[in-house]
UniProtKB/TrEMBL annotation:
Active site, UniProt feature: T208 (nucleophile)
Protein name: Isoaspartyl peptidase
PANTHER family hit by this protein: L-ASPARAGINASE, N(4)-(BETA-N-ACETYLGLUCOSAMINYL)-L-ASPARAGINASE
Binding site for substrate: R236, I237, G238, D239, T259, G260, A261, G262
A Pfam family that the UniProt record links to this protein: Asparaginase_2
GO biological process, one term: proteolysis
Native source organism of the sequence: Parasphingorhabdus marina DSM 22363
Keyword presence, Cell membrane: no
Site feature (Cleavage) residues: G207, T208
Length: 343
């Protein structure tokens, strides 16, 4: 009888200790978050980048990581973290988004952006926006405050004013360096007007920016912002604002942001394809991203993607010599990289 009582008490106390341990583990798990950012992929090699540019880019990537991480560490949402990280990169002229966007053939800055919430799968995007200082905020406003997913050009500009988003004149977005790149592209054009190659950046420097995050609640979000391709014409829109191509988020799989030759990403539905592989084939983030990037490469496409999954795993994959990128998480990881050999 005593033995039975003792066993019962022991079981009870063991039970409550186990319960406490489990609770502790749970609450630790809830504190997990991660963030991945990119600032574009392309022919980015050590010999082509000055020490000054290298340092500026790394500093900006670090600032973006810090802005997003601070929000996630305090229990903020993945959406707020994604927006904060992208805003830092949009405001930095080193990247092809917001300030420092590339020029169209006609010498304008026309920006595309997308924003997606993995919990609700609500999304917002803009194409050819020209007046909103931070296009990522406009994309988010389309998601939050309109019944639509994708707005374009004058209409997108009008909507931004109605929503009270900060506006900026053309001089805010324009930089001398981007203008020089346009002139250089035009000078190097070999194809006749209208040729497929005539409006493509043959140097393949994609400076699009993006962020993906998972917050302490396990919700993922994705955001992408870009000026598109240097010398783009005829109202060309890339993959960045196309939900499922350059941007996607789904709590059942992952959040994705892409950079590269947008036409290929649209044709393959890259961001959705990576999520679908994770959902239906059970692949992890890295495997799914590598497979889809391999397929993209087989078609002739170049660029990269970043991925964050609700379980905290993150990955990137790119088939270009480099990609501006960074990652941070609650376990203390924090790194930024530029060249292909940086882990
Ligand atoms: N993906 C973008 C586009 O095609 C370009 C980039 O990644 O820089 O518009």
């Amino acid at each position: 009888m005593f033995k039975t009582l003792f066993t019962a008490i022991a079981t009870l106390s063991l039970g409550s200790t186990a319960l406490a341990e489990e609770k502790k583990a749970d609450s630790m798990e809830e504190k997990n978050w991660s963030l991945v950012i990119h600032g574009g992929a392309g022919v980015i090699k050590r010999e082509r980048i000055t020490a000054e540019k290298d340092a500026e880019v790394r500093a900006a990537l670090n600032r973006a990581l810090e802005a997003g991480s601070a929000i996630l560490a305090q229990g903020g949402t993945s959406m707020d973290a994604v927006e904060a990280a992208v805003v830092v990169l949009e405001d930095d002229p080193n990247f092809n988004a917001g300030r420092g966007s590339v020029f169209t053939y006609k010498g304008r800055n026309e920006m595309d952006a997308a924003f997606m919430d993995g919990e609700t799968r609500e999304a917002g995007a803009v194409a050819g926006s020209t007046t909103t200082k931070n296009p990522i905020k406009l994309a988010r406003a389309v998601k939050d405050e309109s019944p639509h997913v994708l707005l374009s050009r004058d209409g997108a500009n009008e909507f931004a004013v109605l929503r009270g988003l900060e506006q900026a004149g053309p001089q805010w977005f324009a930089t001398d360096e981007r203008y020089r790149q346009l002139e250089e592209l035009k000078a190097r054009q070999t194809g006749k007007d209208g040729d497929k190659v005539s409006y493509f950046d043959i140097d393949m420097k994609y400076g699009t920016v993006g962020a993906v995050a998972v917050d302490q609640g396990g919700n993922v979000a994705a955001g992408t912002s870009t000026g598109g391709l240097t010398g783009k014409r005829w109202g060309r829109i890339g993959d960045s604002p196309i939900i499922g191509a350059g941007t996607y988020a789904d709590n059942r799989a992952c959040a994705i942001s892409a950079t590269g030759a947008g036409e290929y990403y649209i044709r393959l539905g890259v961001a959705h394809e990576i999520c679908a592989r994770m959902r239906f084939k059970g692949e992890d983030a890295k495997t799914a991203a590598d497979k889809v990037m391999e397929e993209l490469g087989e078609l002739g496409g170049t660029g990269g993607v970043i991925v964050a999954a609700p379980d905290g795993t993150f990955a990137w994959s790119f088939n270009t010599p480099g990609m501006y990128r960074g990652k941070a998480n609650s376990a203390g990881v924090k790194m930024v990289g530029i060249y292909g050999d940086e882990e």
